[in-house]
Amino acid sequence: MKKLTNMDNSVTCMTYFQNYPDRKFCTKCQTSHRIFYNKNAQVWIETVLYTIIGLAIIGILLAFVMPKINQTKDNLVVEQSIDALKIIDKKIKEISSETGSRGKVDLKLKRGYLYIDSINDEINITIEDLSALYSESGISIQDGNVNITSQEGQKRNSIFLTVFYAENITYNGKDENKKINSAALPYVLVIENKGSNIDISIGG
Prior knowledge:
single chain, alpha+beta, 37% helix, elongated
């Protein structure tokens, strides 16, 4: 007959110990399994501890890494907004020399809003939910024709991107201001030189 090993005994005698958990000695195979069960419990305890420690380490790493990831995402949005204003500005410059000329610009605005200020002849994009400052707070800097001003807030930070014009900028033929909110789909801006003014409207 094959001699039972300690592992074999643990399997053949498992039912016995489930029925008699207070007994230290198995009368079936004349072997003590208490050491085996203690080792098994120790393995489970160690596994749980290692899991907790691993989760704690991941939490600490995320606390350091996530702010950097969010800042990188925010900076990308700001740079895309600067590029959007440069494209609008380039189109305005192209049509400003010839009355009656017109052009279209696809405006992708995923965050913030674009403001056509016909009163002051300005076009700007404002983003108010940045996790970190893009530039020094309260100090204006230039990127081409785009004026960049960051503003620090208590919880979130803002940035104002503005292009100033000598031309008379209007919206839908009138000296009125227009706020264009962010959207999943791009807007089509129609820009037209009407002689005395550069008119901007939203087309299809």
